[in-house]
Every structure is written in C-alpha cells, then in structure tokens.
Amino acid sequence: MKDKDLRKRVPYHIQRDVLDELGVDQVAEKSDFKISAKEKLREAVRFKSCFLSFVPLLTWLPRYPFRENAIGDLISGISVGIMHLPQGMAYALLAAVPPVFGLYSSFYPILIYFIFGTSKHISVGTYAVMSVMIGSVTERLAPDSDFMIPGNDTNSTSLDIVSRDAERVKIAATVTFLSGIFQLLLGLVRFGFVVTYLSEPLVRAYTTAAAIHVIVSQLKYSFGINPQRYSGPLSLIYTIIEDCALLGQTNIGTLVVSIVTIIGLVAAKELSALAARKIPIPIPVELITIIIATVVSWQMDLKTEYGVEVVGKIPSGLQAPVAPAVSLLGSMVGDAFALAVVGYGIAISLGRIFALKYAYKVDSNQELIALGLSNSIGGLFNCFAISCSMSRSMVQVSTGGKSQVAGAISALVILVILLKIGELFEELPKAVLAAIIYVNLQGMMKQFGDIRSLWRTNKVDMVVWVMTLILTVLFNPDMGLAASIAFSILTVVFRTQLPKYSILGQVPGTDIYKPVEDYNQEIPGIMIFHSSATLYFANAEMYIDALYEKTGVDVAKLLSHKKKLEAKRLRKEKKAAKKAKKEAKKRAKEAVKAAEEPKFSDTDESGEEAEANGDVHKLSVKEPKDVGAVEVGPDPDTDTTLPQAIILDLSPVNFLDTVGVKTLRNIYKDYGEAGVQVYFCGCQRGVVESMEKGDFFNEKVTKSILFSSVHDAVLYCQQGNSEEVQYILMSYTHTRISEVS
User: Segment Disordered: which positions (predicted)?
Assistant: First the structure.
C-alpha cells in the first residue's frame, strides 16, 4: 500500500478565550516560586557529589565490567601505546625539543587524564597542532642566535645545542604549565561553554592551516638544511622563501631517506587499510618504519658517512619534577591561553562525537579540569602541551577500547620504552620522523574539500573557513586563532544586523501565519511585522526602518506632516481670530454711531428698543463660522491609508537590551500618536522582564497589549478590543499518519 493511502485527515477544534499576557498568567496559574540563593549554594557545595564529580575515576572504576572490557582495553592500550612512540618523538621535533620529551608527554598527562577525564574513547597525548604552537613559542624565546659560541677560528661560530635544547625544554614546560592553569581555572568557574565560540568550520580550517605550518617547519629535516628562524606575521612566507634559497645546500642522503620513508609509509598504510577487514588489530606501520630506519641507519652509519641528522642521545628513566620558570610567564600569557582554548576545543569536539555514538555523557567543565591538571602537572615533569589525536582515538576504538583503562595501559607501554627500550632509537634519522608527520597530516589536508561542500550548503561558513585558513597561515597559530574567532563572531553580528523582515498573512482556515510575499494572504487593516533576528542596539535602527518600509507607514514623516498641519491650523485660527476681533470693533463703532444719530423711521425701532433697554454697548457680534476647521491637502510623501493596528511578532527575540526596550517604547508611542494601535506577541519571559525593568509599562500601558500568539492578537484586533471573545482557534484539516491494519 502506498504512503498516501496510509494518511488520514483528522479535523479537530479548540475553543478558548482570547488571552493577553495577563490572561495567560491567570489561566496558567503562574508561580512566583524561585530557588533561593542559599539553596543554590548548598546544592553547589555538597562535598560528596563535588568530590565524585571532580574525580570521576572513583565513580566508574568500582563498577568496571572486568570480563566484558578487560581484553578489549588491553589490546587497545598496547596498540595505542605503540603509536605513541613514533608520534611522540616526531611531534617533539615540532615543539623544537629533544624527542625523548615527546615520550614524557605521552606518559604523565595520560595517567592524569585517566583519573580525572570523562571521555572513554579519546586518546590524549601529543598532537601536531599543539606541538607546532609550542614550537613557535620555544623558537621565538630561544632562537639559535642566542646560543652561538666562538669557534677556534677568529670569524667562526658554532651552535651550543645542549644549552639551546635545555632552554627550550624549560620554555615548553613553562608555557604548558601556564596553559594548564588557564584550563583548570576555566573549569573551576564552569566556563566550559567557551568552546562554543569555536565552530566546526573554524576548527577544521584552523587545523588545516596549522598542518601547513607543521609541514613547512619540517622541511629543514627533510632537506637537511638550516634556515633562519622567523617569527611574527608572515613568518611562514619568509620561512618558505628562506628554504627555497637554501635548496642548493640540500643534503642528498637526508633527502633520499625522506623520499623513501614517505613512499614506504604511504604504501604500507594503503596495504594496512586493505588488510584491516581481515586483521582485527591494525598493523603498527609507524613502529615498523622507525625500527627498520634505525637498523639501516646504524648499519650504514648514515650520520657519519652521509651527514644525516639523527635523534641523538635518549636518556633512560624518568626525570624529577622541576618548578616552572616564573620569570618567563609574562612573555607567554597569550600563547598559553591560545594553547588552552585550542587543546580543549579539539578534545571536547572529538569526545562529544564518541559520547554521542556510544550513548554516554562527557562533562565539558570536567574535561577542562582534566586537561588542565594533565598540562599543569605534566609541565612540572618537562612535558609539552597535549590534546587528543583523531588517528590514535580511532585505533583505540577499532581495537576494542571501551574505557579510560586503555589509556592507562598505553601509558604503561611508554613507561617500559622510557625505562628499557628508548636508547635503542638514538640512531633514528630525524628525516624519518618528519616523514611520519607528513603522512599523518594527509587527513588534515583532505579538509580542503570542505570549501566545496560549504559553498553548496552555507556560504557564510565557507567564508569563515577560508578566512580562518588565510589568517592562520599569514599569522602565527596563536594570533591566527584570535583573529579567526573575532572574524567568526563578526559574521554572527552582521547576520543579526541583516535579518529578513516580512509582513505576515494568515493561511485561510488556520492559525498559521506566513510571509505575504510567499502566500499573498494579507489581513485587511492589520499589519503583522516579523523579524528573523533578535532586537538589540546593533540593529534597532534598521528594525525601525524596515518597519516603516514594510508597513508603508513612515511615522516620522507622518508626525512631521501632522505637526505642520497643526502649526498651519493654529496660524489660520490666530489670523481668523484677529480678523474677527477687528471686525467686531468696527461693527461696535458703527453701532454706537448709529445710536447717536436721530431716529426718523420705523427701521430704527430695534435701535431705540435696544437703547431703551440699556443694551447699546452689549451688542451680540457673530464670529465667522468654522474658524478652527482648516482643510489642508494631503502630503504626497505621507499620503497612505493607515492600518487599524500593527502587531509586532517578537517570538525570535530572545533578549532585549536598554536600546531594544526604548525602541519598542518609541514605536508604541509614535504609532499611537499617529492613530495606529500597536500590539506585541510571542514575547519570551526574558523579554517581558526586560520591558518591566525598562519601565515600558505604566498606568496607561499595561500587559494587555501583549499576546501569547499572533492569532490571539489578530482576533483581538478584529473583535474591537473585547475582553472576552470566544473563537475557534483551529478549524482545519490536519494530516497525520494513522495505522492501517
């Protein structure tokens, strides 16, 4: 049976009184009950609930389903831990610190997140975007030029790599500590909603632009060159120009290693993707690559024979905590805040995706606290800022990971590597790590396809995407983020300043109102004005202009013309009164003169009678008829038929500032002076409260001009302000799907 045969038309009727705002409050029995501030405070400081929410581990670990989840979490943890090794070492190069500190950043923060995090599936640790942001700070505050020492020759200098790396590690740890403090403070004050200012197009464009920064920063390792470090706006452009100028100094051995590694990684990943259908555990391509590269480098002595730069000494064991460099904090506040926002935005976005897919909740404020503790405590152990990685998270999910236990196991894998295995990778070429970064960034580069899809769906979002990419590429990632957020917010402001205004008409037989330009169903004598945006200071003037244009009633001109007519009428009245007074005096003189002359005829009897009665000086002087009735032609600019009433649909308005309240007050007053009654409908509670606080209502203007719906306001106008009017709210055929046996 076809779908149309399953449909049945069901007519229904509702009968009630026309209700204004006061009537709704009475019928609905509105309650004035409010939770006291004392009760809110008591609820907020309940120790047990606060402590358990602050340490989620205590809530979910006692109920951990060991039999169902243990095997999957174990396999997943080992798989992700193996990925942490090459990615941690590679991303340490982006942060401009020795590779071993990438392994530290893959251990301490993960354990902290295991205790305080709420997402079961994301894999926190090193991340390319965060690493390149750290690298921009470390290379800016500790450039190579500050560590040049005189050589044996008079004009020669050499770079003190040990001192430079030590200073950069201190800078990276300090900015990480400060970013963690920012995240922790934002979480404690329940400021998790700050991530809402990072829209999906903005985040995807930002990560794409950051990937371009990452690629450019790794070119020196792929070509074996040593370009000058640039910072500030256009630094990426200057770096590319510098790299191109140094291509003649390319180390051929390093370039060959890079090309072979990239080709091998791409081919291996394609084969791994094909084999994923048959093998439940993903092939650790990066781990196999660095093992083979290390063995080849050691056997062929690439460092000595071909001048290929290698990782160098990797100390075994863990380091003791070190206090952050307080003297550096003032020079990195902006960088730290950008790290805090970007790291949190990426983590919570990915966490919400998995939470929605697997039906659990991620606490945005607790995630801020977890990441804040991970970064601040990690900064004490010389780690650099972390977030979550999409590739590792997908591996964690695909290999059976179902809880944060998988993350803890991956941290244990890194611990074993730090204690026993790390020193085996000292001969690993840095070009191999750069190649791993290139291949892992191919997913981000595919995000250029967003431009095409956004062009079809939402051109404003496409503009945000493109501008975010351009701003982040031209500026540093931190400055680019700030500029991108500002531009994104401006697009929202502009859209509220340019809403769609329309006059609504009634669909016959219903309480549905649609724009008349689409449905052409105007209501005689009633104008229903609708705006698609809220009303506030930025668009208040445009709201009034659109109201004048759509209703065809320019109240300003109408009142101006009315004042001109009034002034003209007063001038004519004054002139007529002066003329009448002059005429009266003239007649009085003639009457006196006539009274003094002898009366010889019967025609003067009335005068004699008046004289006899003593009323000679009390003559009745008849003034000109209709002195105040001045007929003036209509003004061609304002000649229009005034509507009986104008209804403002305020249902899209979610707040009113003082300018908005003043605008509505002026509209009501001006149209009222022009003889047009104004009503408001669809006012939300906050809008009504703003009108009350803004002294909109008084003894003459009450809530009786507010209506819950457009239909109530229309019927009220049509019935001539009757207090109780029974009407059929809906009497039309309604379609719904009904079950058919």
Answer: 576-618
Contact 209/458 with Cβ under 8 angstroms? no
Which neighbouring-strand residues pair with 680?
648, 706
Structure-model confidence comparison of residues 212 and 51, the more confident one? 212
Residue where the block lists tokens 């995090």: 117
| Element containing residue 467 per DSSP (H, E) | helix 459-474
User: Quick one: average pLDDT of 116-141?
Assistant: 91
Q: Do residues 94 and 399 touch, judged by C-beta distance below 8 A?
A: no
Helix extents (H) in 28-127: 37-44, 47-54, 57-60, 66-94, 100-104, 108-116
Paired sense of beta strands 645-649 and 526-531, if any: parallel
Q: CB of 363 within 8 A of CB of 49?
A: no
Range scoring the smallest mean pLDDT among 14-18, 261-265, 504-508: 14-18
Residue 238 near residue 152 (C-beta atoms within 8 A): no
Q: Which residue has the tokens 């496409």?
A: 462
Q: What's the longest Cα–Cα distance across the chain?
A: 156
| Residues 257 and 438: beta-carbon distance below 8 Å | no
Q: What residue type is assigned to position 67 of the chain?
A: R
CA distances to 516, 655, 706 from 533, rounded to whole Å, are 18, 11, 19
Q: Mind listing the pLDDT tens digit for each residue in 669-714?
A: 888 888 889 999 999 888 998 998 888 888 888 888 999 889 889 9
Euclidean distance between CA atoms 325 and 679, whole angstroms? 64
Cβ neighbours for 41, distance < 8 A, ≥ 6 positions apart: none
Which amino acid, one-letter code, is at 336? Answer: A
User: Mean pLDDT across the stretch 11-24?
Assistant: 71
Looking at residue 561, its pLDDT comes to: 65
The DSSP element (H or E) to which 484 belongs, if any, is: helix 477-497
Mean pLDDT, range 336-348, rounded to an integer: 89
Paired with 528 in beta bridges are: 504, 647
Sign of CA dihedral 173, 177, 182, 187: positive
Question: What was the pLDDT predicted at 136?
Answer: 87
Is the distance from CB of 90 to CB of 102 less than 8 angstroms?
yes
For residue 16 the two structure tokens come to 């009630």
CA distances from 292 to 265, 270, 295, 414, 537 (A): 12, 19, 5, 19, 65
Spell out the residues 6+ positions from residue 696 whose beta carbon is closer than 8 angstroms to its own. Answer: 661, 664, 665
Average pLDDT value for residue range 470-493:
88
- Classify residue 33 by its DSSP letter: -
Q: How far apart are CA 85 and CA 294, in angstroms?
A: 13
Which residues lie below 8 Å from residue 670, measured CB to CB, with a gap of 6+?
555, 556, 559
Ranges of H-type helices in 161-275: 161-188, 200-223, 235-245, 252-275
Q: Is 12 helix (H, G, I), strand (E, B) or coil?
A: strand
